[in-house]
Amino acid sequence: MAESARDPCVKESVLAIGAIAQTLFFRTARGNTLGSTQPPGMKPWGGGGGGAEMLQAGAAGFLDHHHKAALQHHLRAVSVYRQRIQMGTAGSSPRSVIIMTLLLIAFEFIQGNMKSVDSLMGTGMRLIEDASTLMKRRSSSRDSEEPQVRVAAPPREDEMDDIEHLLPCLSLMSGFTHFFNSHRATISRMNSTPAPELPQPGVTPVAKMQVLWGKFFTRAVAYTMRWMHTQMKHLPPPADAARERGQFLSYLRLWQAILETYLADPGLEAQTRRALEMIRIHRLIMYVLVSASLDGSDMAFDAHEEDFREMLRLTLRFMRADTPEEQFPLSRIAFTFAEGLTTPLTTIIAKCRNHDLRMQAAGLMRALSWRDGAWDGKALAVGKLGVVMLEERGMDMEGRIPAAARWVWTDAKWDLERREVVATYVRLAPGEDGQVVSAHLVLDIDSPPDGCGLVGCGGGHDPFEDPGMGMEL
């Protein structure tokens, strides 16, 4: 709120989001189903001045007066933002740039205007590039695989310290949805060297600990995504990849002990405990992804089946711990920029080759709210199930998926009118001529691929009824 009082772009963006929330609040009681990138009644606009054209069209182009006010405020915010782009960071602080960009992205998320979201993420990243420590590569001949631990320093007056990871992390995580492109330029500019600063349980406040985790997680995602792009091109690992992998694994083990210590505090508030439980899930994700990196065949993931099972158990426990009010689908105007539960579930579907765990994760994806992590869970589940379908076609006689039959999802496009996802997949094993082997699938959002028919499975993959999930709380 303090930022909105002194920055016109932030002020107009806050007013725009408030106004459009008023419009949508009473329009989300019906038809609140997954698999749509925009709330009912909204028409995305962007690029060529669509918002201005709608304003000139008169009342017929608006859902109500709140909708009209929202677009007016948003256009004023965009106008100020464009002026800032021309001036670079000289026109505003890096902190303001991050806040402005995230607010504009939030409005476009609500509108369902994903092209503008993608463009805003790319623009925001370029504007903060010189001001963020997450965007500067560091190297040292003294680096080793053992972490040089530095405990968290006392809080300092740094306008970027608490939020600098938010936009880079959002940009990188958008790449895992396969519906965005701006992250491709971000990866090459990201610092994937593990951050050495760690919190001290009992000394470092939880809020500061969450910031430190956010920075570490962002660097780990940058490392992982850089490797995945190398893997899809059938290239050897970068020269420093093995060193960085060892460093990340060392830090991830330290973070596990740190989280357990924080969670052991009996005086921890329920909301804070849930936030730490979410971090625990994401720490396990990164441990598995980093551990299996540098293996271009993806066969290394097979050694982590128990980790995938634990990931699913923790996710299920997190979902079951919701209050009765939270167990109902969230409003379409409700979403967060956090990584959410789509991340562990899509990781299980894509990287765990245990059929039952994959199908259980897909089932939980369909049970998530519409905007977990701001991404459409149903469309993600459909796209990931395309990987399952391609891989299980190539199962051997013992029910295992060999290296030559492993695939990754690389690109996707929406066809909202037909309710379809047009997805592109790449086989991890190149063809006989050494060329990339790809596949294109047109998938029905409302009728996902049959992940059980190919293997003669009778279905019934309900993790809520699986005693093996160990749901003691």
Automatic annotation (TrEMBL):
This protein's name: C6 zinc finger domain-containing protein
Record key words, sorted: DNA-binding, Metal-binding, Nucleus, Transcription, Transcription regulation, Zinc
Region described as Disordered: spans on this chain: 136-155
Molecular function (Gene Ontology), one example: DNA binding
Source domain of life: Eukaryota
Source organism (scientific name): Colletotrichum gloeosporioides (strain Cg-14)
